[in-house]
Amino acid sequence: MPSNGDDTSLPGFIAVETGDAGGLPLAIAWTLPDGRIKHTLIQPDDEWLEAELVSLGGYSLEELGSMGVSPLDVIRELENDHFNATLFTAGVGDDEAALSLLFDTFGLDPFVELAPADSLYDGLAPGDWARARGELFGEMGLEPLRPEHEVEVMLHLHQRLDDGLDDG
C-alpha cells in the first residue's frame, strides 16, 4: 500500500495464526507505521511439539521448518518494529496466548501490549466494527484465519473508519 506521507498516525495491528489446540503460534503478521505489513510462518520450537495434541493447522512440520523463521527471530523483529507499543487485534485472548508462548519459550517478558481493535473507535455501536470487518473480508476476498489477511483488513477498516470520522 503506497504511503501518502500522512500515515504516521496509523496504529499498529497484529494477528497470530494458531493451531487448533493449545494456541501454538504458526504464523504472525503486523503492520508497520507506514502501512506496510510484515508476515511470516513460525518454526515450531521443539518444546511445543512435545505436547500430545499438537495441531499445525493446515501446515506441515516440513513447511513450517523450511519456510518459517525461528521464534527468537520473530521476537527480535517485533521488538525492532514495536518495542513498548500497544498493538490492536481482532482476537486479544488468542493472540495474547500465542505471544505468551513465544516469549515464555525464551524466558522473556512481553514488550508489547494487546488491545481490541474496536477500542480505537469510540463512536461505533457495539458489534459495528465486527460487522464491518466481516463485510470487508468479503469485499476484499480474503480469509479471516490468515494473519496477513486479518491485518490487511484491520488496516483498511481503520483507514475507512478514520476517513469517515475525519469527514464527520
Radius of gyration in whole Å, from Cα?
A: 16 Å
* SS elements, strand count: 5
Order of strands in the sheet with the most strands?
Answer: 3-2-1-4-5
How large is the count of helical segments? 5
User: Per DSSP, what share of the residues sits in E-state strands of 2 or more residues?
Assistant: 15-25%
Unreliable spans are 1-7
Please estimate the helix content.
Answer: 25-40%
Helix/strand/pairing class, anyone? Answer: alpha/beta
Shape call: globular
Average pLDDT works out at: 88
CATH class: Alpha Beta
| The CATH homology group name | Ribonuclease H-like superfamily/Ribonuclease H
User: What's the number of domains?
Assistant: 1
Largest sheet, if any? 5 strands, mixed
What CATH architecture label applies? Answer: 2-Layer Sandwich
At CATH level 3, the topology is Nucleotidyltransferase, domain 5
Order of helices and strands: EEEHHEHEHH
Termini separation:
25 Å
List the helices and strands and how they pair.
Layout: E1 12-18, E2 25-31, E3 37-41, H1 61-67, H2 71-82, E4 86-89, H3 92-105, E5 113-116, H4 128-140, H5 147-167
Parallel strand pairs: 1-4, 4-5
Antiparallel strand pairs: 1-2, 2-3
Description:
It is a single chain. Strand 2 and strand 3 (37-41) form a beta hairpin. By secondary structure, the protein is α/β, with parallel strands linked by helices. Mean pLDDT is 88; it is low at 1-7. The two termini are 25 Å apart. Strands 3-2-1-4-5 form a 5-stranded mixed β-sheet, with helices on both faces. The chain is built from 5 helices and 5 strands, in the order E-E-E-H-H-E-H-E-H-H. Helix 4 (128-140) crosses helix 5. The chain has one domain (7-167): Ribonuclease H-like superfamily/Ribonuclease H (Nucleotidyltransferase, domain 5, 2-Layer Sandwich), CATH 3.30.420.10.
